[in-house]
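quick one before i forget lol
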Amino acid sequence: MKVPSFLATLRERDIHVWAEGDRLRCSAPAGALTPELRDALRHCKKDILEFLCSAETLARQQRAIVPLQPLGGRVPVFGVAGHNGDVFCYRALAQHLGEDQPFYGLQPPGLDGHSPLISRVEDLAAYFAAQIRAFRPSDPCIIAGFCSGGAVAFELALQLVRERAQVNFLALFGCPYPASYRLVPQLRQRIGQNFNHVVEHARELAMLPSRQRRAYIAEKLRNFKLQRAVEHPTAAHWVLALRAKVERATIVAARRYKPAQFKGCVSLFLPCQDWARSGFEALRWRSVAEYSEAYAGPDGCNADNMLREPYALTFARLFRECRERERNNPIAIPEPSRPTNLTVLR
């Protein structure tokens, strides 16, 4: 007897069963649980318990694992979202990787407005690791991280390898090193950005006729107000408000995180070559990896648009190169260091 059809038969008679540990519980109206059904429950107890536990596991993993492209037989990719938890940042990349590459986003708790936020990288990585193991218990995988999600992705790969899971490689897309989120580096970056903006606007104003300068200033003020509205949403924009809470928790977690040594391969995907010399210290990930490879996208690409069109195609091509190179070299098996390179794709 198939368990789903048997449980459906029980539900038709208003008989409900559930698991409590290794015990099967049942509630039924008077006379509904006939001797035949009772014997069938005893006979199928083990199969029913396994089915109910599997269903519970599936329900849990669906809260974190979002299928962006579930088809294909290749080693699946699990991507940690950026600062606001939006896993659809990977959508264009997943599409360009094709239907033979399964790609799942890892969504942090807190976006549903009910589950509590997690403000430690180690705890969030453990949360994702448990769901990946339940979802694909013995399969190898590839871990990816975007922006501030890089710290969580790094710790996630670290924990999976410690538990003897096979992680083929770790891909970090525009991921600042955690130390760059601390207060002094952040202040230094902000001062530098503001100075550059002032210089840029002064140059633009100097080139405009006097009658157009007022319109230019008014436009920039409107854009500033719109940006502030996005960064500080009102209560009416509940989705943006939830994302803002997740963003604050993610930044706090990354700021506190100190990566341990990782005996494996980290593939660093930088938006452009200049980004390697920015205050984000992206290349510093090499100091905590067994070996690493760094790739830079074309000029004009930045961390905000690197996974969007038209740049997503570029990074999909680079990702496929890494995938093929590491296919037979899982990082769960430590091997000697190899030289780091920086490939610039124009």
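fyi Strands lie at 16-20, 23-27, 65-69, 77-80, 103-106, 141-146, 167-173, 262-270, 289-296, 342-344.
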